[in-house]
Amino acid sequence: MNFIKGFNGLRAFSVLFVLFTHLGVYASLHERGFYNTSLDVLFSGNTGVQVFFTLSGFLISLILLREYKDKNSINLKNFYIRRFLRLLPPLCILLLLVAGFMWVKLIPRSSVGFIMAATYTYNFIPIKLYTGELGHTWSLAVEEQFYFLWPMVLLVFTSTKKRIYFIAAAIFLCITAACAWRNIFVVQSGVRYELGNLYMVDRWLLPAFAPIMVGALAAIAAIEFGTYWKKKLEKQNWPLLILLFFYTLPLFLPTVIMPLQTLLQSLGIA
Fold this sequence. Notes:
Elements: H1 7-22, H2 25-31, H3 40-43, H4 45-71, H5 76-103, H6 111-118, H7 132-135, H8 137-156, H9 160-180, E1 185-188, E2 191-194, H10 195-198, H11 205-208, H12 210-233, H13 238-248, H14 261-269
Antiparallel strand pairs: 1-2
Helix pairs in contact: 1-4, 4-8, 4-12, 4-14, 5-8, 9-12, 12-14, 13-14
């Protein structure tokens, strides 16, 4: 696939957002009065992950859609092997290091967390089993689940209209899930808990798929209408202003509709 200008810049910013969050840079600046936490919706590690998800949804969909357009099919075997070789080696190195640290008791042992990280399901781990050493594998789990499901979806829904309908339905379900999960109660050992107090529900497949689906929708638009809109919008500045508007809109949203934050920012990124 041809190099797409601007993507490395977006990746760099998203990496910085994640690093600054994990290193406590924002917290330190806030303590010194140089940073307002309301800006977290623009610069936090979670926002950086959203950027990654949106870019991933776009790039992977673009690759698959171009293959389908050229060959009227998608080679699932080749796709899964490529994704496997790209993601598994770094994960294996991480897991070996974590296993070693657990073995010598430098960090607490967590067999459930280790297994969930190794099987790309860490985004579903209960909060009480969450550990910082493996915590960042939740986003890798969401990515891998997307890689597994999305090619088959594109093979089932072969027309552009059906694919757009599917994405719209998926985004609707993501928004619904974002609103619903935290209002669901479960009973454990006779005690009633909010589901959001037991699990990081915002990292579940729904609603975490929202930015990925926005990226996928942008890929469909690029395939179907890219040439037309490129000619129309070439050397125009107003599209950038619209995207910046969507990206910064969560700053002004009332709390009651904050579940839309991810979707709106993803539109700005896409």
